[in-house]
Amino acid sequence: MILLNFGPLKLLRLAAPCLAAVFFATGAVADTPKKVLRFAFRTAETGFDPQKIDDRYSVGVCENIFESLLSYDYLARPVKLVPMVAESIPQPEENGTRYTFRIKPGIFFADDPAFKGQKRELVAKDMEYAIKRFRDYRNRSPYAWLFENKIVGLDELAEKWKKAGKVDYDTKIPGLEVRDKYTISFKLKDPDYNFLYVLAMPNVVPVAREAIEFYDADTMGHPVGTGPYLLKEWVRRSKIVLEKNPNYRGFELETRYADPGDEWDRAAMDSLHGKRLPQIDRVEIYPIEDEQPRFLAFLNKEHDILDEMPFAFIHQVLPNGKLATKLAKEGMHVFRELQPELTYYAFDMNMVAEGRPNPVGGYTPERVALRRAMVLAYDVNGEIEVIRKGQAIPAQSPIAPGVVGYDPNFRSLAQEYDPVKAKALLDMFGYTDRDGDGYRENPDGSPLTIRLKYDAGSAEKRQLAELYVKSLNDVGLRMEAVAVQFADLLKDKKVSNYMTATSAWIADYPDAQNFLQLLYGPNTGQSNESEFKLPEYDKLYEKSLGLPDSPERNALYREMNRLLLAYAPWRLGVHRIFNHLQWPWVKGYKKHPILYTNFKWLDIDVAAQQAAMRQ
Amino acid sequence: MVPTIVGVILLIFFLFNWVGGDPAMVLAGKISNPEQIANIRKQLGVDLPYWQQLLIFAKQVFTFDFGRSWSTNEEVSRILLTRVGPTLTIMIPVLIITTGLSVLFAIMVAYVRGSLTDRSIMVVCTVAMSISFLVYIIFFQWMFGFILGWFPVQGWSESFWKNLFTYAPLPIMLAVFVGVAPELRLYRSFFLDEINQDYVRTARAKGVPEKSVMLKHVMRNAMIPILTNVGISLPGVFVGSFLLEVFFSIPGLGREIITAVNRSDFPVIKAVTVYLAILTMLINLLVDVMYKYVDPRVSFK
To answer: Mutation test of the interface with chain A: which of B65, B80, B146, B249, choosing the one with the most A Cβ atoms within 10 A?
Structure first.
């Protein structure tokens, strides 16, 4: 009615500022540059169904699309568990056999056609469904072992499904008790104080049953989660694009556990202070298997970060261990990380391997002496300096750095390179050269040849094999190195078709138990490739399972380590050091030892990024 | 064609089952027990008797339905359809430019055979052929992509034109550079064979201009072995160059094949091999038909 009192010209004059404001406001929104992070994976992904994958790169993407009950604090070192979709970290009940979680109400999945236009809230049933999916025989889950012999009633349910040839997710089991909409209680068969770590793994995440059933055959290509990002575009093995999930609630950087003396923590706190995360709008990931294009794409500023810089370029980037002057002037940062992983050579402990008597198998004093002599003869320093270009430290125990139970001060003489001691040990136990051909024979005079199997697809493994052969030749032992395809190597190690072979392990969760289980007797045929069966070791391992993190449990770990060094079912290798590079416009960077990606905590100075790209 | 396909099926089946790795081991993950591995083998169908597996394979060939990739669960037909585009974007220009340049240079050096130019070009070709393709890739990528910045170091987009004019030129240039030397030497020998023929001498004696002798008489007759050679290399166009695709992040078939082999992804290996065998047969047929148009002496029965 009021408008009727104005003439058209006056009306236009009054409306002009409003229109201008709308126009400029719209323009401002449209002109706000998106924060885009670009980087490469060094191996192609496989897909994004969290219960069907185990490769680090696919899991790394899932870390950002899905959310687990618990996760890790970004800055805390040693790592620290924090709640993610759970309200809090529960205390173990019933002697470490029950854990009860309450999920935060009001967390929603990303919008998806599977939900038919409805908002879908995260509930406890989604977690129950996800855990059962690990044991659904149709999913061939590579992480099924996490829930084997673990949750009351789950093994029986999985067996029933398999026998019947069909699955029924509505069947209730006592180990997965959904108490109300948001509460789930896990009942375990035996005490397990590391169970919380399992529930912090990035693929032990709740999923929506409707979405899984909707996408059925291609769940790998349609991840629907509650996390900060959603999968916007996927050109398989070529490009993965994530964009912010509009339904995501956001969070702020937790600084409670930060170390103010740590330059990375300080920089992260300064740059992310008061900001709602995630800040990055779009993440573009390019799987690039070859080292040179990955490295050059980063140097060319086509990428913003380079995680796990290829070792081949270490002298160009870090001559004498310091960032090259030219790169430092450009503002590049390097984060050096001792990863929670271990390389080792496994010995087959059986008396027969590859269909013939196995000279390195068994527990008799002369066999133990032979293995220990091989351990002493191996030039681990040469491996680090020449092959790994100084980017590793020798392993002193089977427990990797950064995990609970690792003792950085522990040193073992049994693992040191000492060819003189190796020769003396061999002489003492009758491994001498009787026919004068330059190589030692078995104590009974029979010929002695040890066969090493390694992955034919890796140039690094070939170099390591050559070093091992040379090291043993130096003490008079004959070794044959046999290159085999990766799949065959896995099979050979599984069925005891090798004498010694290359191996490696990276922590699934930050506890020594994840490494020590590799030598637990009952794990033979699964993760115990050496088929090491020592009742003393097994008893200690079983006892440690029933204890929370404590000096008492650490003492058990130390004792198990002592047995490993004494019986030598492995020749421990190294813990590798990885160098992660970033351009200066990337803010808030810190590499987490367990989580693979960190871009939900990063920010980008877009002006600096674009200026660099224009140059 | 049918016997060839049967031979291909038997060969692939034999190689995969007796030489290839066990896919169940790769898919089983870090920790697995024999029961789980048996379950995976059952799911994949590799626990069936060999004759049954062979029948399934034969059925897949005749229905063109190879199912899904064992490692990524992606439909095999989708893998082939989406990867062949980037491969052809690189390989068709490579084939055209390499053949064009090789024929042009070959006829030129054949014409001045024995001269300093001829000998110099042959020496350059021999040296160029002695260097590994990998060395060229590493050098070209570093020099033209990184140091000079003429091309992106690597990459691929959704736009055909952007790919063709931004991302493809460097790998195309590389493949042409490497491909020209051996083809030039080969085609030169074809031209020399023809130049020394009596009909050339007769044409010259009759006063036919040199241009006509070379382009009409010599070229036309030399085209038969050249066509055969191009025909032989044509199936390769459809599978691409693994090294180029890996180094330049091109989502093509070459990269896919190597990934499939490394992961023992039999459905993908089967499909690509059969597809390649069929292509090879069709291309051979096409080349045979084309002889008729190049050489009037050839006729259809």
So the answer is: B249
More confident residue, A222 or B289: A222
- Decide: A453 and A480 in contact? Cβ < 8 Å: no
Q: Which residues contact A167 (CB under 8 A, 6 or more apart)?
A: A136, A137, A138, A161
Interface of A with B in 461-490 (CB under 8 A): 485-488, 490
Q: Are A226 and A108 in contact (CB under 8 A)?
A: yes
Q: Identify whether the C-beta of residue A592 lies closer than 8 Å to the C-beta of residue A72.
A: yes
ipTM above 0.85, yes or no: no
Crossing angle of helices A459-474/A365-377, nearest 10°?
120
Q: How many CB atoms lie within 10 A of CB B56?
A: 13
- What string of DSSP letters covers A301-316? TSSSEESS--GGGHHH
Scan for tokens 């006892």, then name that residue: A543
Alpha-carbon distance A606 to A586, whole Å? 9
Residue type, A382: G
For the segment A363-404, what is each residue's pLDDT rounded down to a tens digit?
Answer: 999 999 999 999 999 999 999 999 999 999 999 999 999 898
Give me the phi and psi of A183, to 5 degrees please: -115, 130
Which amino acid does the sequence have at A406?
A: Y
A110 DSSP assignment: P
Q: How confident is the model at residue A8 (pLDDT cuts 50, 70, 90)?
A: very low
Mean pLDDT of B101-126: 92
Integer CA distances (angstroms), A416 to A295, A344, A346, in order: 34, 14, 17
Radius of gyration of chain B (CA): 24
Interface test with A, best of B15, B31, B148 (most A CBs within 10 A): B31
The three-state (H, E, C) secondary structure of A430-495, written as one string: CCCCCCCCCCCECCCCCECEEEEEEECCCHHHHHHHHHHHHHHHHCCCEEEEEEECHHHHHHHHHC
Q: Which of A449, A474, A452 is nearest to A379 (CA)?
A: A474
Count residue pairs from A and B with Cβ separation < 8 A.
136
Q: Which residues contact A287 (CB under 8 A, 6 or more apart)?
A: A40, A41, A42, A43, A44, A45, A57, A237, A238, A240
